[in-house]
Amino acid sequence: MRGLRSTLSLGLALGLGMGYALGGCAPGGSERAPGSEGDGGARASSEPLPERFGLGRPAGDGEIAALAIAVMPDGRGLPAGSGTAREGGPLYAAQCAACHGSQGEGGLGGQLAGRITDDAFDFGDGMEGPRTIGSYWPYATTVFDYVRRSMPFDRPGSLTDEEVYAITAHLLYLNDLVGADETMDRETLPQVVMPARDRFVPDDREERNRVW
Ligand code: HEC
């Protein structure tokens, strides 16, 4: 989540930066456009924006398909393929353990394994304790989605779907949620019930009290 947020803000910053640069190159230099007094820019605010800015090109179907990889909590969007924790163990050791520890105990990257006694993570009351996959994540399918799109941190997108299934199974195994030989695929992964699943509720408070 944090990763996504920083990617979004980077995109925003680049967009703003580009707008600024284009504004700086606008014909007329420092001269004010007629009628723009007071708005601080070269374009009167009532003037409609052009339909196109002459930048970029339409994305192709293949390019969109390569990015449209979201997996929903109920498993919609999961690809074909399968894997077990036993298959994922060596992959995890080679590609993830350097940052997350050999048993998911954390290191350069966060702690991924560990349950809270009685699975009683204190949601909404201090939020103390490690937010591991076993103590905090509501859906097993999100583990697949997150790992596929963003890990390993230094080579995101480099894992095959088979490898992601196996590594996801291994992460669930490290959290005592599946057995070593249980096959994870588009049918079985959504059926794994995470301890924190019912601890997340829709935020139905009034607009002004929302937390985002
Ligand atoms: C080079 C170090 C590095 C490697 C290698 C790496 N990770 Fe990460 N991982 C990170 C960092 C840093 C974050 C935090 C990213 C963020 O918050 O944007 C993270 C976050 C995560 C998270 C989310 C944790 C949470 O609860 O917020 C998961 C799950 C994860 N990694 C799994 C993996 C898996 C699986 C692999 C191997 C395929 C892997 N990582 C390899 C550094 C690494």
In words, what does this structure look like?
This protein has 212 residues and is mainly alpha-helical. The protein contains seven helices and two strands. The protein has a domain of 116 residues: Cytochrome Bc1 Complex, Chain D, domain 2. Helix content is 35%, strand content 2%. It has a two-stranded antiparallel sheet with strand order 1-2. The longest helix is centred in the first third of the chain and has 23 residues.
Task: For the structure shown, list the relevant keywords.
single chain, 212 residues, mainly alpha, Cytochrome Bc1 Complex, Chain D, domain 2, two-stranded antiparallel ribbon, 7 helices, 2 strands, 35% helix, globular, disordered N terminus, binds heme C
